Structures are given as C-alpha cells and as structure tokens.
Fold these 2 entries.
Entry 1:
Amino acid sequence: MTNNNNKKLKVKATNLTKRFEMLETTSNKMKTLFGLNRDKGQEFWALRNVSFEVHDGETIGIIGLNGSGKSTISTLISGTMTPTTGALEVNGDVSIIALGTGLIPNLTGRENIHVVGLMMGMTNKEIENKLDDIINFSELGPFIDQPLKTYSSGMKAKLSFSIAAYQDPDILIIDEVLSVGDGTFGQKSADKMFEFREQGKTILLISHDMLAIEKWCDKVLWLHYGEVKGYGSTEEILPQYINFVQWFIRLTPEEQDEYKEKVRREQLTYSVEILKDELEEEYGQKNSRSNREEVKEELDFSKNNKLSVFIKMLLVVLALVFLAGGIFYTSNTSDVAALANPINFFQQHAFREKTEFSEKISNEVRSLSESEARKNRNKEKLQLKSITENQTTTTKSSKASKKSSSLKESSQSSPSSTEATTNYTIQAGDSLSVIADNLGTTVSEIQTLNPGLDAAALQPGAVIKVPETTTTTQGH
Amino acid sequence: MKDLVQYLKEQIENLPLIYNVSKYHTKSTQLGQFFGAAWEYIDPIFQLLIYYFVFIVMFKRKVAGMPPAPWMFIGLGIWFFYSISITHASAAVQSSLALFSQVKFPISVLPTIEMFKRFNALFWMIGLGIIIALKDGYYPTLYYFQLIYYFAALILLVLGFSLLFSTIVVVFRDFSHIIDYIFRFLLYVSGAAIDLTLLDAIPGFMRQALLADPFIYVMEGFRDAIFHRAWFWEKPGYALIFWCFTLGLLIVASHLHMKLRNQFMDYV
C-alpha cells in the first residue's frame, strides 16, 4: 500500500456486491417502473464483498472459473451497471475491448470504425486522423472495405481490438479478446498494451490464458464464485490458482458436482444481513464509531432519485390544465363564461358542439356540395348538346335546381327548409349525384333534407327524403 | 426537472454523434440495393399516392377549403414521422442494450437517433406538399416563419414520447404491440388523411376536442403555416394545452429514464 501512495488511484472498489434477481417476472419489472415494492424473487449474488485497488500504470489480471463474476466486475467498472452495495471509484475514461461491441454487420470495416469510434466518444476529426493507423494495425488490408458479415471471428476480434486500442482511454479493460487472434497478432496486441503501460495507463485483463496473464500482468485478482480469493502479485497468486484448478481436476466427478453445488448455494443464499455482519467484523477490528457510520452508508443502496415536491405539484398542475382544456374544447361555451361559472359549464355546456364549429362544418359541407352541383350542371350542359330529345325536361330540371339553390341561400340561417318532401328508396349503384340527376334536384338539397347522410356510403334499400316538387316533374 | 435538463444536455452534447450514427444506420439498411438511397425518396411518394387514391379518389373524401393533395401530403408526412419514429424509437433502447452492455454510452440518445433517421423523409414529404401547394397558389409568406415554431414543437413532442415509450418497453416488452395498434388507429382520427371537420362518424363535440390533441395541434400548425390559415398565437388555448402536455410528458419521461437507466442492464 505504502509504496503505491505516490501513484494515482485509478479504481477503488470497497465492499462491492452485485445482486441479480432470478426468475424476474414482468409484473415485478412493472412494479419498479411505478416505484412500488417488488416481491422478493430468487436472488443471485454475482459479487460478494469485493474490495480492491488499482493504481496508475498497473496491469491487473482478473482470473477465476466461469461464473465467478469477472465480466460483472468489468461492466461495473465501465459504468453500464451499478453495484448493489458498496462504493466504486473510477478515475478516468474506461474503454472495454470485447468482441463485436456495437459493430453493424451490414457496414464495411471502415464504416464500422467510424460508427464504433463515434459511439465510444471520439469525434469525426479524431477518427479521420487515426483511421489509417487503425486499419494498419488491424491487418485487414483489402478486407477493410468489405461488409462486416463476411469477416471471420478472428478478423472481427482484430477490428474490435484495433478500434479500442486507438481510443486513448485511461483504463482499458480487455475481456477475452487476445486469445482469438493468432500468435502474431497476439504479440502485436501485447506490444500495443505495453505501449499503454508505458504511458501510465491502467489495464485490466480478463482471461483464462494463464500464459498471457503471467507474461503481462503485475498483479492478479482471483475471483472465486463472487468472492475475492486472492489479490496480489502475479508470482504469489497465480500458482495458488493453478494449484486450485489442478486440485479440482483431480476430484471425482461426484465430488466436483458437490463442490460446485456448495459454492453456488452460497451465492444464492447470501444476503444483506450476512454482508452486514462481514462488514462489522471488518470495521470492528479498527473499532470506532465513525466506522459504524461508514458501514451504514455503504449499505444504503436505495439511491432512488425521487421527484421533488415542487415538480410533483407542477406535474399535477400541468395535468389539470391539460384535462380542463380538453373538457373545455368539448363544450360550446367561451373560456370566460366557463371560468366564471364552472358548475353551469359542466351542467349545460360540456360535451356540446360550439355553434361556430357546427356552422363551420355546415358551411363547408354546403360549399362542397354546391361546387359539386356546379359540376353536375356542367355535365347537364354537355348532355344538352348531345341529346336533343330530352331538351325540355333537362332545362326544366336545371331551372328547378337553380331555383332551389337560390331558395336555400336565402334561408341559410335555418337549414331545415319548409318544402314538401317525399321518400326515395335508394337503388343499388346509386350515388347522391345520380339521384339528384334523376330527380332533377341538387346534392346539397338532398343533404340538407337528410342531415347526417354520408355521401360516401349509401345503403341500397335505405329510404331518404327528397324534394317533392322535383319528383313530379320527372313523371315516374 | 434536473433529469430533464440532464437529458436535454446529453442530446445537445451528443448531436454530432446522433447525426453521424443515424447516417450510418440508414446507410446500413440501404446496402446491397441497386437504387440505395433513392428508395428513401421513392417510398414516401408511393405511400402518399396510395393514400391519395384510397381516400380522395376511391372514397371521395372531401377536404374543406383546401386543395386535397398538398393538404394530405403535409398531414401524412408529419403523421408518418410521428408514428414511425416513435414506434421505432420505443424499441431502440431494448434492442440495442446488448450492444452497449460493454461500452459507456449515453443510452438516452438511442431514441433520438431513430428520430433523426426519419428527418429526410419528413422534409421530403413536406417539401412535396409545399411544391404542390405552390401550384395551387399558396405562395410562401410570413406565415412560413411559423414552421420553425411548429418544428420545435414537433421535435419535443416526439422526443418525449420516444423516451417514455423506450423506457417502458425495456421493462414491459409487450407495450410495443400496444403502441403499434394505437398509432394504426390514430391515423384515421388524426385528420392526416381524412378531414376531421367533415368526419361525420364522430360526434361534433369530439371533433372539436380532437383539435386540442397534441399530435393534431402540430400537424394543423404546419397546415396553418403553409395554407396561410392562422398564426399560432391565434390559438392560445390549444397552445396552452399542447405545452402543458409536452412539458409534463418530458418531465415524466426523463425522470423514469434516469431512474431506470442504471438498472437497464439487469433487464436484458
């Protein structure tokens, strides 16, 4: 510890735990959304009371069996997940090299360098400057302009590593990437990593490749089913781990199963209470009251950011204005009148059409049907030219329609006309304009007599009202 | 409120990232097609022609006081922008979470990237609408300056819904189906393709209340500007409702997003 004091602290984890909930149900998830208490499901403690420190320029190997929480540690450090309890202090930019992160299979290698670089926080200019270096380093040559989906896994790994290697992070996490490339690329990656180390950067190497760990790492963190089994120099820890693996291999299959079962059960039954005891034991050795406070603070993982009262009130006000406005616009009163007498507003005016609105609608319907009638008249004129026999009847009917339309214009305020009407049964294939033509009236006339009649959907057999005067002129 | 400020700050700081990544995403979908980027412009035209044929030609729907073609193009342009960017954005966080499990990345920009992808189509469809409106004699006037106001309103509204829905979908995946159905239905009562004032199937008081719908407010605003109908300050009631709704939506959405963001990975 003391000889490290002159070096800057890069990562400091104290009493880190990470709890995953197994058998997560959708209803439980939804409860978190609304901030309700969730039912307690089966818990799985991926990390249990993990503490370690990493300093400037150190290369740390993280080793352990599968499922020991190595990748969980790396996601915690990169900040994509938050620890359940404990404190994690990370000073500097973190970048993780993992296979296929953010790569888009349809794009070429070159375009992927752009996209991934952007997502990792580089600017376009930086990428342009480094592009050639990255391509050179990746050894992809002509394949760089091929779509990524044609790449082999080794090529993808090389590309991933190259992009990440040129990002200039303070802390580099390498998760099982080096073993994918061949020996020559592995050597090159190693050289690049040494370059990072010389620049005083911190590297965390997660690997099952003991040779690589031995070669590159100053220190090793041995995770064993969520717990730290050992943390220290490579020469000290690595032989212990290898011994453990060999001891395990020598066990009979039954014993192996039994052992795995046992440690897994520990991970499942661990709880905050056990953690509390462990922490008290740990801090109790130093024996002071302030340490107790510290324990409490570290156990405080309900870091819920709640809405402040002011914001809650604001939200309520906004919702009220929105609702009131919505109801107001279903009413037929003015805003001043609604404010002056809200009870009257609800009793008499809500859910009614505004007179301006209905006038606007009927005006528009009228103007539309008038323009249609004009079109019909033009049609009739065309017919006039071609069919001379019907001359007398058509002129009569067009006169009648003109008369009726002028009548209607004069009585605009009261659309319900006093004219006598008869019923007309709609035949199949009829449209309003056909009926109007046949009976020598206008579409607008029919529409005013039949409010709510939808011109687009006439039902054959339905009975509508038509002006009486015109039916007599037609004669059948 | 501080969540909202942080959210907006993240969007602005990452604007180059959003722009560039959306460009590459679009490019990746076009790869291997002979006409490539041209489809982005051909698709909306055909969509518009189909809707024009179905509603105006086949069902003889009328549009009150405006030429139907540009009226419909502008409405549908904005409507498709709403529906496609919001439905895509709501799935964006959930589907890309695994990609970013290892990288520190401002997840809140994922829905925004989806919105940016739709900008081309939006501008293209509104541009077409404006060109056809010019042919009908609606020339650009001072009214056009309103487009800036309504564009800002459009973006904030879409951002709010995208963020809220994308957060909900991570936790409650079935929600994406519901969003889909809602938008499919809303198209027909939104006034995008069928003129609300002439839609007899809905009672009058409902139709006049629908005009206060935030989606419709923005869409009608674009039409107001292009067809010289009204200034936005001539509709203070609708504006008040719209901004109350949008502000509330953004506050709730950003709060939920920030609250659950750190736990997103647990939901994958």
Entry 2:
Amino acid sequence: MTADSLFRLAPLAIALPIAGLLLNLALGRRLGERFAGLVACGAVGLAFLVSVLQALALSGAAEGATVPIAAWIEIGRLQVEWALQIDSLAVTMMLVVTGVGSLIHIYATAYMHDDVRFNEDPGRYTRFFVFFNLFIASMLILVTGDSFLTLFVGWEGVGLCSYLLIGFWYEKGKDGIGNAYAGKKAFITNRVGDAGFLIALFLIFTTFGTLNFHEVFARADEGGAALAGIASAITLCLLIGAAGKSAQIPLYVWLPDAMAGPTPVSALIHAATMVTAGIYMIVRSHALFALAPDISSLVAWVGAATALFAATIAVGQYDIKRVLAYSTISQLGFMVAAAGLGAYAASIFHLVGHAFFKALLFLGAGSIILGIEHAHHHASAAAGGHVAHGAAHRPPFDAQDMRNMGGIAGRMRVTHLVYLIGALSLAGLPPLVGFFSKDEILVDAFHVNFPIYLVLALTALMTAFYTGRQLMMVFYGKARSDPAAQAHESPLLITLPLVALAALTVLGGFINLPGATPVSQQLTSWMAHTIEHLHPVAPSGLVAALATGFTLVGLGAAWLLYGRRPLASGAPDPLRRLLGPVFVGMENKWWVDELYDRLVLRPYARLARFLADTVDQRWWHDGFHERVLLAGYNRLSGWLAWSFDLPVIDGAATALGQATQAGAAGLRRLQSGFVRTYALSILIGAVLMLTYILLR
Amino acid sequence: MNVPTSYLIGLSGVLFGMGVLGVLVRRNAIVMFMSVELMLNAANLALITFARQWADVEGQIFVFFIIGVAAAEVAVGLALIVAIFKSKHSIDVDQVSGLRG
C-alpha cells in the first residue's frame, strides 16, 4: 500500500474508540464485563494499529499529509475545516496515546473487575470504559487536529473525561463528596487555563485571520520581528492554557486531588497523556514561541520552578499516589522547561519516556493498592461485625498510605520488580529511558540557560530522593499493617501490562540515544520533519556524569534515612527531625491550597455573596425590581386604571348610555296615548311635507 | 253630462276637510271612524276624477283596491271598538290612552 492510502486510514484511529464507546453504551450492561472490556480494549488496540500504520506511512513520506474529514465552520473570514494533520509530532503522540492507552485499558479490565468500591452498581464497569474510550477519542482529536480550534475541541473533550473519571467514585472521599469536589476543582482550575487558551485563539484569529496550523505558522514566519508584540501576548495566553492542562505553577493544584479517580485513570489521563497536552501544544506552536523569546524564557522558568516546587512537596507526602502526582507535576515541569528552552525534541522525548515509566509507576501503585485493599476487605469480611464496631472509633484504613505499607517486595514479586524499574527510571538511572530523556533536557539547559540547569539538577536530586523514599517505605522493611502483610500478587491481566511497560522503560531510551552514531538521535531527526530549527545538542559526558551522581546521592540519602533503619509502625518520618519546619511545609504542600483559599476562593466567594446578596438581592431585586420596575408599573397601571380607563373609556360608554336615556325620557312625552293628538301630528306633518313639495 | 274636473276635485277637498275635522274634533270612536271613511272616499273620488281626466284606467283599479282594503279595515276597526266598549263601557277615544309613554 502506498503512503497516501495509509494516511487515508487515519480517521479510523478516532472512529474506532468512538465506535467502541457507542457499542458499550448500547450493549455493555447487557453483555457484561467481559464484553465491555473486550470492546474497549479492542477499539483502542485497533486504534494503536492504525497509529502504527501511520508511522510506517510517515517513514516513507516524511512530510506527512493532511487528511480532510469535513468542512466544519464557515463564518465570514473564519474557515475551519476538520482535517487530520499526520506528521511526525502527531504520530508520536498518537503512538503514545494509543500504545500506553491500550496497555492501561487491558490493565483496567482486571483492575476495575469486581471493584469493592462499586457499591453494587454493576453498570459502573461499562461506564468506566465508555469514559475511557471517549478519552482516547478526544485525545486523538487533540493531537491530530490541523488547527487550533480542532485542538481546542480535543482539549475540552479530554478535560471533560478527566472530570468524569476523577469523580468516578463520586460518593467516596471526604464527607462522602470529596471525590466530586476533586473533579470540580480539576474542571474549574482547567477553566482558568482554558480562558487563557481561548483568548490566545481569538488573538491568533485577529492577527493571522486563520486558525490553521500551517497558515498561522507560515504567516508568523513571514511576519518576523514585526509580530513580536502580539506574539508575546498570544504565547503568554497559550502558556496560561498549558499551565492549566499540564499542571504548572500557578494552576497545578488540581492534579494531586485528581488522584481521587481510579488508578488507571491517574495513569492514563493524569500522568501519561492528557497532562502532556499542554507540552504538545507549546511544541506545536513553536513558531509563535520563536517570535517571543521573553515568553519562551518565562515558559522555561515556569517549568523549572514547577519542577522544583512539586519535587519538594513530593518529599513530604505519604499517599503513594500523591507522591506520584507531585512527581508528575515535577516531570511535566521538566518538559515545559525544555520546551521553553527550545529543546523541543528533548521535551517530546521526555514526554514519551515519562508516559512509559509514570504509567508503569501508577499502574504498579494500583496493583499494590489492589493487593492491600483486597487483603483488608477479606479481613474485615472475616471479622464481621466486630471490626465494623471497632472501625467507628478508629479512622478508616487507608490502603494508599505508605505508612501502612512496607515489606511488599516479598509478597508482590512481579509488581516489585517492575516498580523498581519504573522508579529507577524516574530517579534517572542509566540505561533506563528516564536517564536519557532527563539528561538531554539537562544538557540543553546546561548550554542554553545555566540557572535553569541548576534548578533542574537540584530537582533531579530530589526526584531521586523521594523516589528512593517511596521504594523503601513501600517495598522494604516490615509490613506496618495487617493488610500489607497479607497482600497477594495481582492477576496476570494486571501484571502483563506492567511487564510490557517495564520493557518499554528499559528499551525506550534507545529511541533517542545521545551522540553521533547512526542509531542515535532517532527521535530528534524524526521530529525535525515537523519542527524546524531543531538544534541537536552535543552530548556532554560531564552533565551525564553529574546527573548520574545526583541520582545516586539522592537514592543513597533515601537509603540512609529510610532503608538502613526501616520506618516503624506509627513512628514519625525521620525527615521531620532533620528538616523541622521545612518538612512540615512539604507535608502540608506549602499551604498552597490554603493560600489559594485565602487569596482566591474566599474573596471570590465573598464577591459572589456580595453580588448575590447586596447587588442582586438588595439593589437589583429589592431596589430596582421592587422599587423601580414594580412600583413604576404599579403607578403606571394605576394611572391607566383610575385616570384613563375610568374617566375616558368608561366615561364615554356611560355618557352614551345616559344621553340615550335622557333622549328617551324627552321623547316619551310625545307618546300621549291620545289618538287624536297623533292624528293632528300626522296632519301637521302632511301639511308641512306638502308645503315643502309645493314651494320647492 | 260632463262635470268639470275642478268641481269634482273641489268636492273631494271639501269631503277630505270634513273628514279631517271629524277625526280631530270628535271623541266618539264610531264618528271618528266614519270621518276616516269620508277621507278615504274623498281620496277615491280624487283618484277617479284624475283617471277620467287622463282616460287612464289605473286610477279606477286603484280605487277598487282601496275599497277592498277599507272594508277589511272597517271589519277590524269595528271589532276593536266592540272590544273596547266591552271593557270600558264607553267609546270615547280619550278614555283609551293606555299606550301613553
């Protein structure tokens, strides 16, 4: 088959997940879990196949293709066509989304099976996969769109799926509504970013007269320095959008709370794919960022600051998923920083590698949580009423708290092994993918912007530390709770995707090896077809050695604190003694949520209450409506009733009647009843008529 | 014998005037009735006179109709007078003023 006919298959990648979700929507509940899981996995798997075909086609025709699907919007100058842009960037994203997505789908069929949190609602299983397929379809729309507006449709689609899936166990969480609040928080925080993105779209349209990528970037290139001012405004707004979706300062606060969703959701949406949409968007719009060097360096600083800040918080967390969540924010910061430095290939490389190992880590964490949760469930079911009675006094058991874990390594061997691979990759140990991708970013930063390099290097050190801390707390030492002591390895459907992801983590680095050998810089040269002015940076042995050193120092420190003398049950974190108030800050996420509560939420609520109570209720409703509109209307209608209707309309009718009556009263006198009088009248009348006729 | 038209019209006028006077001044219903008949016949006479004058038969035919109608009127009128008399024991028309407005 020729490349062209392969490209024409691209819409299938979007159509298949949609078909899958429609099938599940219609028949999923009736045909049961096995069918629903099979349909969902099949749909995404086939979409992956389509993506692979696109990659094959692209290797023959590197310039890619635009596959039109339909005319969409035609309003005056605004002409938007829905077309798929198949180029190396889009296909890379497609492969990650559908590839990692397929593995997570397979994992989820087992993870969601018989979930104890379903609350005996069997329809949830199907609903989960409907949302999951919808997410894949939206994400593919996002990465394949050939215009900013198509990208925005996917952008909102994935945001919706994120909201739906964070609140999937909507009746759980703090006070039975915490998860629903988490979903709401994610949605609203993203809305702030989306507002920026929308303004960017408007600015792009007014400046360039089109939203199509090709045309916008071509005109941006032509415009050159003359466009610097407006380009700064556009890219700043784009950065706000990216900060919302990719959880950067100041809009990152939703991502940790998003861990309320089921673990496969955290892996797929909040680690591997959706949160990278912002980075994809920045890389896609690199031609605009090239015109605004100030904003580009702002992007880099935002990324670096986020990376460091989130890493410090990750050090002080106890929830296994929250550590990973802050780590995700931190790693996204690395990608954003790389994009800001112009190291687009490094950014995408880290995006791909991070998708592998972070999905692996989340899924591994899910496997551990599942093991502990089932053990806990068995124990409470066996103990019956006794435990339920006791539970009223003790806080409920938290299967995600690392202080309840320990010693999992011996009981969940496969999970332990793959988690170790993922964690070491996150820490940046060669030859895992995390080492290569992070190293490439560090090298770029080292050459381009040394302060940022320092921040990122420090972050890398802390990353290794909190990763080591997590490994020690979860896997080694003695079990600090009964469920952790009785956890069993998860079924094959869960461990197989883990093994596959571990393999990708081990081998992933080879897609973009540093150096100048024929096999190195594959991804960079592949990306160069889409992104102009990519500057391959010469590898630096010094930076690599330093990075490895930092990793080893971080891991070593973690071993010293948590590995040498494992944490005892109920004991305080050893860092608390060492860092004192700093650790309290890390533990409490630097009170950013509280700060936002004070700075934004409460004033906003007060403003809303002021607007509602004072302006709307008292002024608008009581004042304007009651006093002006209602009273005015009353007065007008009163005037009309008493001063116009009664005297004029009613008066006219009455006067007519009275005149008739008066006339009749006068005329009745003529009717005397005397026949002779009538006769006389007739005579007189006849005489008068004759006289008139004769004298005429 | 050829009586001039003017004489006949004069006679008709005199008869009509007597009828009018009779209706206006007399209160006896029977007499008033007769006076009305007098006026009718004065009109009949005038019609016949002009019919002869113009040698046109239409006026004469008209008179036949008037005589027919007058006969019917007399029947109705006399019946009324009898009915009034039965209730009022008088035929004075000024006594019968029940239709006064």
